[in-house]
Design brief:
The complex is a heteropentamer. An eight-stranded mixed β-sheet of chain C has the order 6-7-8-3-9-10-12-11, sandwiched between helices. Chain C has a four-stranded antiparallel β-sheet with strand order 2-1-4-5. Chain C is built from eleven helices and twelve strands. By secondary structure, chain C is of the alpha/beta class. Chain C has two domains: 224 residues, P-loop containing nucleotide triphosphate hydrolases (Rossmann fold), CATH 3.40.50.300; 72 residues, no CATH class. Chain C starts with 9 loop residues before the first strand and ends in a 19-residue tail after the last strand. By secondary structure, chain D is an alpha/beta fold. Chain D has two domains: 237 residues, Rossmann fold (3-Layer(aba) Sandwich); 73 residues, no CATH class. In chain D, helix 4 packs across helix 5 and helix 7 runs parallel beside helix 8. The longest helix of chain D has 18 residues. The relative contact order of chain D is 0.14. Helices cover 31% and strands 19% of the residues of chain E. In chain E, the strands form five sheets. A seven-stranded mixed β-sheet of chain E has the order 8-9-10-1-11-19-12. The longest helix of chain E is centred in the C-terminal third of the chain and has 18 residues. Chain E starts with 6 loop residues before the first strand and ends with a strand. The chains are: A mainly alpha, B mainly alpha, C alpha/beta, D alpha/beta, E alpha+beta. At the B-E interface, helix 2, helix 4, helix 6 and helix 11 of B face helix 3, helix 6, helix 7 and helix 13 of E. The structure holds adenosine-5'-triphosphate (2 copies) and magnesium ion (2 copies). The site of one adenosine-5'-triphosphate has 14 residues of chain C, from strand 1, strand 2 and helix 1.
């Protein structure tokens, strides 16, 4: 038996290369740092927030930003705006990320199975997906949330259902693309079974693009989830959620416009950061030989 | 071509059936009493049962579905429980209003989006591209309902230049295309155009960059075409995809207008949907969702056929 | 001569593949591409069979059929006397005997795997332990002229075209196959690199006792590599003959045209007239009868009427042309032998 | 040479767009006489296409540094700007590409693309007249049923027909110089011959000058009067076809000729090869770019780029070892 | 010409125009804007004074009395010379026709979608009979002295006008369908006898009235040329509309914008309403509220002054379901006020303290008609009760679900184990104000005794009130009932709404009575 050579010079793997390229993109990097900051803020909200986000006092309602002790003012119940915005990151990010993650799992599974098996399985799965795709996303989200009734769980279900079809479609087309590539044929020619090929050859090539696509939906999901809360179909009070805060503060629009704008600013910052980060990631992944 | 169109239409039928099933199932998922909008909570049980029977809510689901589907096929999408008016008249008026809004928004979004997209794609990696791209990222990232609020605060409440809500001084039925009425359309349409602007700009930018990187552009230069001439070619190459994106965006606006219409009290399908949800007017909810979804399906179909017609590369069979 | 020379290693009979391209509303195929339409040949132990033909004539489809990567519409393949896919020779077992090298060296390597992982994949599928598979990989890399220390850890995009094609060859050899199907394996390479790879192929063949099916549209290269050459035209075999016989004494008008299209390399004897005009027809609606009759200078009504059979016209020289068949009724056919 | 339609002097093209600057063409001199065909030969990436495209100034201005002089039919190409450049392109010098499928606009019919070109350069011509001319051009390049094919889109035609259409397009405005960038590489052998013969015939009939880029020496031999061999951005050997084929003097040319698996004479034996691989243009060694792969390279080769050596009769070689290779 | 017209434009809080067919929905806002202006009822509220409680006065009926022998039979004498907007005359037949439309399933004009609102507000009315052209006899299921109060909700529509609509639909063959369509047509072009006539109806967007020059009551003949009603459910949108001059009057302005509204010269009208914003307790086994000390403690623990301040003054501090001075007040022995010490002591007595806190769960919604500002207010209560060792869990459910659950009761699984529910109610008539919450007969699913409050004493008090047919006796009985209710405290009384409305100073003649309603007729525009 031949000897195995040990001191191999290993090239950095795909993701390492992507990471390095990503680090070289200042805009994407800044966006990623903002996202990271927001996530940390959400995770450590109870420790960071200067005040109890639920504790209000009617005597200090609707103080403008810059008020002593309340750097970002107070909301319509006299709760500290800064603390609520910090805590709001939890639900808002949660509602942005979790539905997309759930949809990523389900949608990717559907798409990869459909794309790899082709034929009738594909037709059946993708036609079903098409039915849900036949609804504009906002309509579907609103209709589902409206039918199921407001609440975080229902919002999660609605958004997950909204994002499964697009992810499944992308997964299907990427998989179909990969499936017909020569290296998959070569693996088949080596006698590998379908599951092994999917695991070793398809997933590695498919998950990246699907993941990036899903990432690009996080911003949409956030805006949509906040929109549902804004309509009164999402998170229920007194939970601090940016969309809901936007809704409840709306009545103070004329007295404290700046204050009312704050939750929207947070949504905007988060979604633009996610978008820029995704753009950066996408171009970092676009490695040409 | 006709064969192709027929084929596409036939392929759409199962999807339409699926859509009707989803629409029907959606409202029956709904917790709570379907008659809540006509029955006050203090109505007695016997009145309630009597009414359930009157509206057919006591029958098994599949029977209700088949009856409903049968009536839908005959063009009757039900009667609003609350108002007693046919859902179709409610919707047709609302669709008209939303269409007006969405069409203007699509136009604004399309004009700006294409402009930014073309400029960015042409001047790739220059500051012009960066500015135009920043605007398009703004478009896809901004929560438009919030933007709507901000615009109302600035232009209606503070500056008083434009009216904050409604569809004209006399309501949508008095609509006229004059400045007095048009004023009411500006804020909602601008707000609504932001997302399609962003999406179209991004699509067009990618499209233009992709087309410009193709060899045939070198070919066009080599045969002596000026930049204006090349621009014409780029437009024609980009048109099928760009128009398809625009069509689909129009569909999204029609179906997704609920947030904007709620902010601006614009009497369109979104507001109707909102009313239907919060008043638990199930037939109205069902009908509105159905019509909007069907609209979207048909629009997709039209976009598809149109794209096939515009793009000689696509095989028609 | 060894005894194995008598039993062909691979026997291909009546291979047909139709791809549906248009479907009616009910999903039934209304028109098909007959990419391969009745191909017969044998491959002997240790030989190189060249396959030439114009673009779209079904060369790659034949290769994929040989590997059973796609199901043939009809026809059988026997390996060492056993029918492939039967109980005697299950597919997985067959697949380690036959391996494929594709034209596009880039697309045929998984961009997310290192060279080492790509090559070791096959043996590991067949139950070789990881360390052993890696050891074999390193040996093979060494063998195809790539230093394992430098190349084993690299990714596809970090290799030049020639290096990638060497990796592909190593990958194909990792399963210790007996047959290598090379589908335009050198067409994408520069001449200087092509020569290196061709040399490598020659050496490997010797060393591992391989048999090659060498597919190419470059007649020069086929002539250099192959002992026998199969000429395909629109999914059918036009001619199958020992190389020299084919190049010097072609019997099929198409082969003649093909050989005549070879460039002279002599500035004083430039080609004056094209041996044949027009492009090959569309395989969706292939011409009836002899598929070449639309471009054939000797075409007669019989050619459109009947499909010429593949007949032996000389020693080992098989031709499918009415002109060679005394029974065909073609005016140029030889008189019937007594 | 006094009588030239195209004179390229000391052309240098550097691409500055990427992380590293790529010097794709590094001092090319090439003169083409009226009615002459020069074949530009070389490996992938040696700068053939870049040289060709420089003649029409087709490189993106922002990311390219281009130096040297190009004079075509008395026009100083480097000085052209805007409209003048556009008028020059396609009218004085036109171009044929390797992949007509990619080089033709997929959403315009072939007829439209040709008439567009004609009317761009001759605005006085009516649409009908332009179409008539397109029809004649199609006949000229021997496209069967030309009337129908004028309305066809590129994807509806076979490879050979597309390339014929491409040639028709290039000839639409009666150019003086035709640049052909591997026009037959993508074609099947039987079709390649047809196109080569067609080009040769047209060139002769119209007295065109032509630069013909190819990988394949055989093709060069078939069409050219002179052959120029490029390596790493320089022309390393140039001369009449016979001289270059029969008495190559640059080690690279010699290697190139011997690597061909030509004919049965070598069958089954090993081929001679050029060891190593083409250089990285972003990281060229100082001296002769071929030195690392050259069997006869000496220390001097690695120090400075060799100057051209004129061997007479226009046979020029950039190698200091011409004595050895003779 | 338009400029010279006096037009009053009003933004309502409803999301849609309340039904215009005579039985308005959308709660009392419906009665306020599409009932009272367009129609008359047999009896009506006196809305002419801002200071006195609104009392019952004759409307289309000039007099009424219950039969001496059969206390279920009432005769109503009709006003003569009243004409509907379509010109037809009001007679006894019209009354019978209007009763039949909701109670007689066999009537051609039976309107199922109008049953709900009507029947539930007149739970005992059974039928009507014409005695002569100007006399009708109404029959109740059982003796019920509340009937005249209930009849303020039965708006009388024009039968002749409906018949015209019905006749125009000759092409519709199915009778029920034809009637349905006739009602839809009627709703779009209504005809009642009220001081305003419908001029234009644009579903979901606006309804416009013009004056009825021929109105029978000269005091209520209006000077307004036109009234425009616009649905605007968003408080901030209404505020914007007022500030930008799009409308002259808005209902319920955004509380936070009140200072700004006033500062810009708009006028804010408020007055206490017969309205209660409560927590209604559960008396189901295991509920912590079964202990009266706990109920009292909660009522003493909320600083309502502070809440009022938080709401910008837009609430009235409750002392019971009706305020002191009301005929039904009855001087209860328990005083609802803020007394933290006493509350804490009561809690201590009940066995709770800082270390043994009491967990309670309350259902509420994020919005809803009459709910004022449910979330902030509930959160305020939640915080206030914290000082009295309560840990309140708020379960925010969708408004309709909350409302539906109101008659499903505390035992229903949909109550999710809540110990209290937060549905606001109107307290204008004794049934709605008191009876339905305290009678053993109104337990779920019959009516809104959500918490299953059962007490024979209350059943007796209720029976007594129901059968006291003279006003004095009835009010005295109701006062006793009210006093006992306050003492037993089945509610945590938090607030009364004050019906805030903001309007331009151009609107003249505004009288905001102590009622849910307001009369548009005497108003004018400057
Ligand atoms: N999966 C497929 N579906 C439909 N048609 C196919 C498929 N694969 C191949 N074909 C068609 O079958 C014919 C033969 O294809 P094949 O790839 O075998 O040709 P080839 O001889 O390898 O050509 P080339 O020299 O261009 O590689 C072509 O016309 C091709 O378009
Ligand atoms: N726009 C560009 N930007 C950067 N580098 C370029 C550009 N165009 C060409 N190059 C580089 O210049 C070098 C020469 O390219 P060129 O296209 O002239 O090669 P070629 O000789 O035509 O090769 P082939 O035979 O493959 O067509 C290559 O290394 C190529 O990567
Ligand atoms: Mg092939
Ligand atoms: Mg090139």
């Amino acid at each position: 038996m031949p000897e195995r050579v040990n001191e191999i010079i290993r090239s950095p793997g795909f993701w390492v290369t992507v990471w390095r390229r990503f680090l070289r993109d200042p805009v994407a990097l800044a966006a990623a740092l903002v996202v990271l900051g927001l996530i940390l803020m959400a995770v450590f909200a109870p420790w960071i927030a200067p005040q109890d986000p639920f504790q209000g006092m009617s005597l200090r309602r609707l103080k403008p930003p810059g008020t002593e002790g309340y750097p970002l003012g107070t909301d319509e119940l006299g709760r500290d705006m800064l603390s609520r915005l910090i805590h709001g990151a939890r639900i808002s990010l949660f509602m942005g990320i979790v539905p997309v993650l759930c949809a990523l799992f389900i949608g990717a599974a559907i798409g990869i199975v459909a794309g790899y098996s082709g034929g009738w399985t594909n037709t059946l799965l993708m036609r079903t997906v098409d039915v849900f795709f036949a609804f504009p996303s906002v309509l579907l989200a609103v209709a589902l949330a409206g039918a199921l009734g407001p609440g975080m769980t229902n919002g999660l279900i609605a958004l997950t259902l909204v994002f499964i079809p697009p992810i499944a479609r992308v997964a299907e087309s990427v998989t179909t693309g990969v499936r017909s590539r020569d290296f998959v044929e070569a693996a088949k020619a080596s006698g590998a079974g379908a599951l092994l090929i999917i695991r070793k050859h398809v997933l590695g090539n498919v998950l990246g693009p699907i993941f990036v696509y899903a990432m690009s939906l996080v911003a949409v999901s956030m805006i949509l989830a906040a929109g549902l809360s804004f309509l009164g179909l999402g998170v229920k009070p007194p939970q601090p959620d940016w969309g809901l805060m936007l809704n409840t503060l709306r009545t103070a629009m004329y007295t404290q416009p700046l204050l009312c704008a704050l939750p929207g600013v947070m949504i905007f910052i988060t979604s633009i950061s996610f978008n820029l980060m995704t753009d950066g990631l996408r171009s970092a992944m676009d490695i040409k030989a | 071509m006709i064969l192709y169109a027929t084929k596409r239409v036939l392929l759409t039928l199962p999807i339409m059936l699926g859509v009707t099933i989803v629409c029907f199932a959606l409202v029956h998922l709904a917790p709570g009493d379907p008659l809540i909008s006509v029955l006050p909570p203090d109505a007695s049980q016997s009145i309630k049962e009597q009414m359930m029977a009157l509206y057919g809510f006591d029958r098994p689901y599949h029977e209700q579905f088949l009856r409903w589907l049968w009536r839908v096929l005959q063009g009757d999408i039900g009667t609003s429980i609350r108002t007693g008016r046919p859902v179709s008249t409610e919707i047709s008026k609302a669709v008209g209003n939303t269409l007006m809004l969405a069409a203007l928004a699509t136009c604004i979004g399309f004009l700006l989006g294409t402009l930014f997209g073309f400029v960015a794609g042409y001047f790739r990696d220059t500051w012009i591209d960066k500015t135009a791209s920043a605007l398009s990222v703004f478009g896809v990232s901004v929560p438009h309902y919030w933007l709507g609020m901000v615009l109302v605060i600035v232009f209606a409440a503070t500056l008083g230049w434009l009216p904050p809500t409604g569809a004209g001084p006399g309501g949508s039925e008095d609509w006229k295309w004059d400045w007095v009425h048009f004023k009411y359309l500006i804020l909602p349409a601008v707000t609504m155009s932001v997302i399609p602007m962003g999406i179209i700009a991004r699509t067009v930018r990618a499209l233009v960059a992709e087309i410009l990187s193709q060899e045939f552009v070198v070919g066009l230069r080599a045969k002596g075409l000026s930049e204006v001439g090349i621009f014409g070619h780029v437009v024609k190459n980009a048109a099928p995809t760009a128009l398809a994106v625009m069509g689909i965006q129009l569909g999204y606006l029609l179906g997704g207008s609920i947030l904007i219409e709620t902010v601006f009290a614009w009497p369109g399908t979104g507001l109707l949907l909102n009313d239907a949800i919060f008043q638990r007017d199930l037939p109205l909810l069902q009908g509105t969702i159905l019509v909007l979804a069907m609209f979207f399906v048909v629009l997709n179909l039209a976009v598809d056929v149109m794209q096939t017609m515009l793009d000689p590369r696509i095989q028609r069979a | 001569m060894r005894e194995s020379d008598n039993v062909p290693l691979l026997e291909v009979r009546g291979l047909v593949k139709h791809f549906p391209v248009k479907r009616n509303l009910l999903g039934r195929a209304t028109s098909v591409v007959s990419a391969v339409d009745g191909v017969d040949f044998d491959l002997r132990q240790g030989e190189t069979l060249g396959v030439v033909g114009e673009s779209g004539c079904g060369k790659s489809t034949t290769a994929r059929l040989l590997m059973h990567l796609i199901e043939p519409s009809a026809g059988t393949i026997r390996f060492g006397g056993k029918t492939v896919g039967s109980a005697a020779l299950p597919l997985k077992e067959f697949r380690r005997q036959v391996q494929l090298v594709f034209q596009d060296s880039y697309a045929s390597l998984n961009p997310r795997l290192t060279v080492e992982e790509s090559i070791a994949f096959g043996p590991m599928v067949h139950g070789t332990a990881r360390t052993q598979a890696q050891a074999r990989t390193h040996a093979l890399l060494e063998r195809v002229g790539l230093d394992p220390r430098r190349f084993a850890g690299r990714f596809t995009h970090e290799l030049s075209g020639g290096q990638r094609q060497r990796v592909n060859i190593a990958r194909a050899l990792a399963l210790q196959p007996r047959i290598l199907v090379l589908d335009e394996a050198v067409s994408a390479l520069d001449k200087s690199v092509e020569a290196q790879v061709l040399n490598l192929l020659l050496d490997l063949k010797q060393e591992f006792g391989l048999s090659y099916v060498f597919i190419s549209h470059d007649l020069e290269v086929v002539r250099f590599m192959a002992a026998r050459v199969l000429v395909m035209y629109l999914g059918r075999v036009a001619e199958l003959a020992p190389t020299e016989a084919l190049y010097t004494d072609s019997r099929h008008p198409y082969t003649t045209a093909l050989v005549g299209s070879l460039l002279s390399m002599n500035p004083d004897r430039r080609t004056e007239a094209a041996p044949i005009s027009g492009d090959p027809p569309n395989p969706i609606d292939p011409p009836p009868g002899c598929r070449f009759h639309t471009r054939c200078p000797h075409a007669e009504p019989v050619c459109a009427a009947g499909v010429p059979g593949l007949g032996m016209r000389a020693q080992e020289h098989w031709v499918a042309c009415h002109m060679g068949d005394p029974m065909s009724g073609h005016s140029k056919a030889p008189a019937r032998a007594a | 040479m006094a009588d030239t339609v195209l004179d390229i002097r000391n052309l240098r093209v550097t691409f500055t767009g990427g992380a590293k600057h790529v010097r794709a063409v590094d001092g090319v001199d090439l003169a083409v006489a009226p009615g002459e065909v020069v074949a530009l030969l070389g490996e992938s990436g040696s700068g053939k296409s870049v040289t060709l495209r420089s003649v029409l100034r087709l490189h993106p201005e922002a990311k390219t540094r281009i130096a040297g002089s190009i004079v075509a039919a008395g026009v100083d190409v480097m000085a052209l700007t805007g409209a003048a450049l556009a008028d020059f392109r396609g009218k004085t010098v036109s171009m044929i590409f390797q992949e007509p499928m990619l080089a033709l606009d997929p959403v315009y019919s072939l007829g439209q693309q040709i008439t567009e070109s004609i009317r761009k350069h001759e605005p006085a011509v009516s649409a009908e007249a332009a179409r008539r001319r397109a029809f004649e051009l199609f006949e000229q390049v021997r496209i069967p049923s030309p009337e129908r094919r004028l309305d066809a889109y590129p994807h509806e035609m076979s490879g050979g027909m597309r390339q014929r259409a491409m040639i028709a397009l290039a000839l639409a405005c009666n150019p003086k110089v035709l640049l052909a960038d591997e026009p037959t590489t993508a074609l099947d052998a039987t079709v390649q011959v047809q196109i080569l013969l067609l080009l040769r015939e047209l060139q002769r009939n119209l007295n065109l000058s032509m630069i013909f880029v190819t990988h394949d020496i055989g093709v060069g031999v078939e069409v050219a009067d002179r052959i120029a061999v490029m390596y790493a951005g320089r022309i390393v050997e140039i001369g009449a076809v016979r001289d270059v084929i029969r008495t190559p003097r640059h080690p690279y040319t010699i290697g190139l000729l011997s690597t061909r698996a030509q004919g049965g004479r070598l069958s089954g034996n090993r081929l001679t090869t050029i060891s190593g691989s083409p250089p990285d243009l972003a990281n060229l060694p100082p001296g002769c770019a071929f030195a690392p792969r050259c069997a006869s390279a000496s220390a001097a080769c690695r120090e400075a780029a060799p100057a051209p050596v004129d061997l007479g009769a226009g046979h020029v070689v950039r190698c200091i070892h011409t004595a050895i290779t003779a | 010409d338009a400029g010279a017209q006096s037009v009053l434009r009003i933004a309502m809080t409803a999301a849609d125009i309340p039904k215009t067919s005579g039985q308005p929905d959308q709660g009392f806002e419906g009665n306020r804007f599409t009932g009272i202006p367009l129609y008359d009822a047999l009896t009506q509220w006196d809305l002419s004074s801002a200071d006195k409680p609104s009392v019952l006065i004759p409307g289309l009926a000039t007099a009424w009395r219950v039969s001496d022998t059969d206390k279920t039979k009432w005769t109503f004498t009709l006003r003569k010379g009243v004409k509907f907007h379509d010109g037809s005359e009001l007679t006894a037949n019209a009354i019978v026709w209007n009763v039949d439309k909701v109670l007689n399933k066999d009537a051609r004009h039976f309107a199922p979608d109008q049953i709900g609102v009507t029947v539930s507000r007149m739970p005992n009315l059974v039928s009507a009979r014409r005695i002569d052209d100007f006399t009708v006899e109404l029959t109740t299921k059982e003796p019920d002295s509340f009937l005249p109060l209930n009849l303020t909700n039965l708006f009388i529509a024009s039968p002749a006008h409906w018949q015209k609509k019905y006749d125009a639909l000759a092409s519709v063959s199915d009778a029920a369908e034809r009637a349905k369509q006739a009602w839809a047509a009627f709703a779009a072009d209504a005809s009642g006898s009220g001081p305003f006539k419908m001029a234009r109806f644009s579903p979901r967007e606006r309804v416009e009235y013009v004056k009825n020059e021929a109105y029978w009551d000269p005091k209520r003949r209006t000077k307004l040329d036109r009234v425009v009603l616009l649905p605007m459910p968003e408080a901030s949108a209404r505020t914007a509309a007022l500030l930008s001059g799009q409308v002259d009057w808005i209902e319920s302005p955004a509380p936070d914008a009140v200072p700004q509204i006033k500062q810009k010269g708009f006028i804010l009208h408020t007055n206490a309403q017969p309205h209660v914003w409560p927590w209604q307790f559960s008396f189901v086994e295991g509920s912590p509220w079964l202990d009266k000390r706990v109920r009292h403690a909660a009522n003493l623990c909320v600083n309502r002054e502070e809440l009022k301040q938080a709401l910008g003054g837009l609430m009235e501090i409750p002392k019971g379901t009706v305020p002191p001075g009301h005929p039904w007040w009855g001087n209860p022995k328990f005083e609802i006020k803020y007394d933290l010490k006493a509350a804490q002591k009561l809690m201590a007595d009940a066995g709770f303290g800082p270390n043994k806190r009491l967990k309670v769960k309350t259902l509420t919604s994020a919005s809803g008609s009459g709910q004022m500002q449910p979330v902030p207010m509930n959160e305020f209560v939640q915080q206030a009760l914290r000082a009295c060792y309560f840990d309140v869990e708020l379960e925010v459910v969708e408004w309709n679900a909350l409302f539906t659950n109101w008659r499903e009761g505390a035992k229903d699984p949909k109550s999710r184990g809540a110990h209290a529910t937060n549905v606001t109610f109107a307290a204008m008539d004794p049934f709605f104000a008191m009876v339905r919450f305290t009678s053993s007969k109104t337990q779920p699913p019959v009516s809104n005794n959500w918490g299953h409050f059962v007490n024979p004493e209350f059943d007796d008090l209720i029976a007594k009130a129901r059968t006291s047919f003279d006003d004095k006796g009835r009010d005295a009985a109701l006062a006793r009932l009210h006093a006992r209710i306050v003492e037993e405290a089945p509610f945590l009384w938090v607030a009364h709404d004050v019906g805030p409305r903001a309007m331009s100073s151009k609107v003249k003649g505004v009288v905001q009575p102590k009622s849910w309603f307001i009369d548009l007729a005497p108003m004018s525009m400057q």
